[in-house]
């Protein structure tokens, strides 16, 4: 017999709603990590360490030396929509920081074991707290859930353990931890290239020589060299473009016509947030097509600053996708600039071989 069609509408339990929302923001460990990196950078950190176990499913830990979190704020830190970065809806148009909705830590606390150790400059000690489902919880049964004083340096350490422990379907979807670790390295590498003056390290637990290590003093080219190798770092040109009419500025470090790879490497930052854009990537690849051998692809690091009033970062919970006004015009400007600098390099080369 067919089951009777359900027809009565019922409200989902709050914890189900929270887990669904969390699963939309954090699909894989790398998404949790991206939020944590952005928080650390927002906090003014100049050094950032990432430690990973099992592709981030067992452990994802990020330690920064930023301004820390006040002990008084710790009880509401992981509640949904608690933030120090946004007060009015209008602020979305001038937002300079990465985070703004106060959803990241809340989400993580619904699908992982989360603990936070933090110390501000003003505090005489660090404070450690554990969270579950948005709230402080005690680490041992019978103990108080209040933050506990411990010794520690200024800054914040966020420890995420057993990600998706309570979302079995998601957990089962992960085949290999090395695939997840590769995504994590890719993301840390992006921010390590972009955030000049910030030191980055990323390590697999128990493996000291894998991963990323970039000192705070490294230049952008040094950073690219560390992470992407000499071959590309030796063939880079910088580009700059700016236009008041479309309200944008762009800086980039891109491979010249001597460099050609099987696949495009595209590090794109819009208003200092790592994002993806198939449209921009395609336009740039087409620009390169006339300079590279057939099947050859470039390396592109591009940082676009667009007047925040013209950008809508709020299109998707993950903030991976960003929309802005006059996208076509801005892309055309950037591609013109790329064409110019690739052309210049070419002339100087042929000039040199002629003489
Ligand atoms: P959002 O970044 O959107 O504000 P989050 O859930 O990511 O929301 O973080 C909530 C708040 O916790 C932030 O507004 C910030 O005040 C604080 N916070 C989170 N991570 C850090 C950190 N590494 N250092 C200092 N403060 C932090
Ligand atoms: Mg955030």
From TrEMBL:
Domain DNA mismatch repair protein S5 positions: 224-343
Localization, UniProt: Nucleus
Family the UniProt entry places it in: Belongs to the DNA mismatch repair MutL/HexB family.
Annotated protein name in UniProt: DNA mismatch repair protein mutL
